[in-house]
């Protein structure tokens, strides 16, 4: 007697769930650069198709089909997000929420289309609805990751809505921090406007960040905000001298970077739209200590004679497995005649005239020595990504005085490149010897990513 054929509907729920989980894992692990296109090009359509089969499979597949939800800064998108949350099958499965101002993300010099601008024209209405939406995220019982991406690296002329947007979003995060039934594991805030707000001091904001295992912070251009107040035709709504110093010198350190529990944080990304870390305001990188840190990403960070940024990396040598350095810079002090100028890294012809390319200052710790030291000390490192921005001449070295920052020709590009290749080779041989795949916490940027982040 022939055995009866069993289709998917006859399998027990537990077995179907294993199949669905395996499908999601395969799709999420595909290489997006693979040729031909990987199966992830179908994601999440495969799961959506499975949901449409019957109510039983809908119940099983929904938590995985909607475990990541993204919405943008338009009434249509926010209302659509809220509508999806009305379904308990969707609401109970959401683990990651991404809010981003633009979708798709414009490139560095792209002009925003009239349709995109029109969709964001109802600023007051959008702001209120966005606040309401973010405040309700505590209703998602499985939520463990939140990403917030502001719209502008630099302030748009004649438009200060970003300041009101920031205050409203921070108010919503306070509600979220006070209401979450389980702590967030991952928080990403990018293009963060660089000025202090009272909400950062609230206990609820600390509660939101306290138990993070992954923290990503990227600030907007402090230099651009300060310049806006100095322009002759600047919008007078901006107070003279936007107070970026309190944020960069205190808030960023005390109320953002240092808030997570050092014992739980395993991944940290610190990015800046301007070069930052030594000039004009020193940042105490060397004081950061996270005993379980496995992944570290630094963008536009300055390495100096004080060794703070380098010390941050080296003090985590026993745990660090992943390192990203995006467009970082070595800075050295140099005395120049005093000039009137912008304290946030302005470049001036007088500076360049005084010190030409042939008068480069001495660099005690060039990139070649730093790479060699990292290669020697980071014995557990199995993933390395070092990137330079391609759209400008690499500014790997710069000199500064109190008022000015000026790049100069590379100290010795040949030695630096040789040391970098040696560093990369050591890591590659270690990976080959261990025969283990490592999935990076932070993705490797392509040219588009670097354009958007700077």
Task: Please describe what this structure looks like.
- This protein is of the alpha/beta class and 454 residues long.
- The protein is built from 16 helices and twelve strands.
- Strands 1, 2, 3, 4, 5, 6, 7, 8, 9, 10, 11 and 12 form a twelve-stranded mixed β-sheet that branches.
- Helix 12 links the parallel strand 7 (295-303) and strand 8.
- Helix 8 crosses helix 9 (203-209).
- The longest helix is centred in the last third of the chain and has 22 residues, at 413-434.
- It is globular, with a radius of gyration of 24 Å.
- The N and C termini lie far apart (70 Å).
- The relative contact order is 0.07.
- The model is unreliable at 27-42, 228-241 and 338-357 (pLDDT under 50).
- Summed over residues and divided by their number, the pLDDT gives a mean of 80
DSSP E strands, number: 12
Strand content: 15-25%
> Could you give a short account of the major beta sheet?
12 strands, mixed
User: What's the helical proportion of residues?
Assistant: 25-40%
End-to-end CA span: 70 Å
Tell me the quaternary state.
single chain
Q: What order do the helices and strands follow? A: HHHEHHEHHEHEHEHHEEHEEHHEEEHH
Sum up the overall morphology in one term.
globular
Structural class comes to alpha/beta
Unreliable spans: 27-42, 228-241, 338-357
Using only C-alpha atoms, the radius of gyration works out to: 24 Å
Continuous helix count:
16
List the helices and strands and how they pair.
Blueprint: H1 13-29, H2 45-51, H3 55-65, E1 68-72, H4 75-84, H5 88-91, E2 96-100, H6 114-119, H7 123-135, E3 145-149, H8 161-179, E4 186-192, H9 203-209, E5 214-219, H10 222-230, H11 244-257, E6 267-276, E7 295-303, H12 308-314, E8 322-326, E9 329-333, H13 349-354, H14 367-377, E10 383-387, E11 397-400, E12 405-407, H15 413-434, H16 447-453
Parallel strand pairs: 1-2, 2-3, 3-4, 4-5, 5-6, 6-7, 7-8, 7-9, 8-10, 9-11
Antiparallel strand pairs: 11-12
Helix pairs in contact: 1-3, 2-3, 4-7, 7-8, 8-9, 14-15
């Amino acid at each position: 007697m022939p055995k009866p054929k069993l289709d998917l509907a006859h399998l027990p729920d537990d077995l179907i769930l294993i199949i669905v989980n395996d499908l999601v894992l395969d799709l999420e692990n595909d290489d997006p650069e693979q040729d031909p296109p990987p199966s992830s090009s179908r994601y999440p359509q495969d799961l959506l198709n499975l949901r449409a089969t019957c109510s039983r499979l809908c119940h099983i597949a929904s938590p995985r089909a909607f475990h990541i939800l993204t919405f943008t800064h338009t009434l249509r998108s926010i209302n659509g997000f809220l509508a999806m949350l009305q379904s308990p099958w969707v609401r109970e499965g959401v683990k990651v929420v991404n809010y981003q101002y633009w979708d798709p993300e414009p490139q560095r010099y792209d002009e925003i289309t009239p349709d995109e601008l029109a969709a964001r024209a109802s600023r007051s209405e959008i702001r209120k609805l966005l606040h309401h939406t973010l405040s309700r995220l505590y209703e998602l019982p499985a939520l463990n990751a939140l990403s917030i991406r502001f719209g502008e690296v630099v302030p748009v002329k004649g438009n200060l809505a970003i300041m009101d947007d920031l205050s409203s979003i921070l108010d919503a995060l306070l509600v979220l921090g006070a209401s979450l039934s389980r702590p967030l594991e991952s928080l990403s805030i990018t293009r963060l406007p660089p000025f202090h707000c009272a909400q950062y001091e609230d206990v609820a904001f600390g509660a939101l960040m306290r138990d993070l295992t992954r923290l990503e912070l990227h600030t907007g251009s402090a230099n651009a905000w300060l310049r806006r107040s100095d322009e002759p035709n600047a919008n007078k709504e901006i107070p003279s001298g936007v107070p970026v110093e309190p944020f960069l010198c205190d808030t960023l350190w005390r109320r953002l970077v240092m808030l997570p529990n050092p014992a739980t944080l395993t991944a940290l990304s610190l990015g800046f739209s301007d070069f930052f870390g030594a000039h004009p305001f020193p940042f105490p990188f060397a004081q950061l200590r996270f005993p379980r840190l496995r992944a570290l990403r630094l963008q536009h960070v300055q390495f100096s004679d004080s060794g703070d940024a380098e010390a941050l990396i080296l003090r985590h040598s026993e745990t660090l497995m992943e390192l990203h350095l995006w467009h970082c810079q070595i800075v050295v002090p140099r005395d120049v005649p005093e000039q009137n100028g912008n304290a946030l890294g302005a470049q001036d012809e007088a500076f360049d005239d005084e010190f030409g390319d042939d008068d480069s200052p001495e660099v005690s710790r060039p990139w070649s020595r730093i790479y060699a030291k990292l290669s020697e000390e980071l014995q557990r490192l199995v993933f390395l990504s070092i990137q330079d921005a391609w759209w400008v001449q690499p500014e790997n070295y710069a000199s500064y005085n109190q008022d000015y920052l000026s790049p100069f020709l590379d100290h010795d590009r040949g030695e630096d490149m040789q040391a970098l290749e040696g560093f990369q080779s050591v890591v590659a041989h270690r990976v080959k010897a261990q025969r283990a795949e490592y999935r990076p916490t932070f993705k490797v940027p392509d040219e588009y990513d670097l354009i958007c982040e700077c």
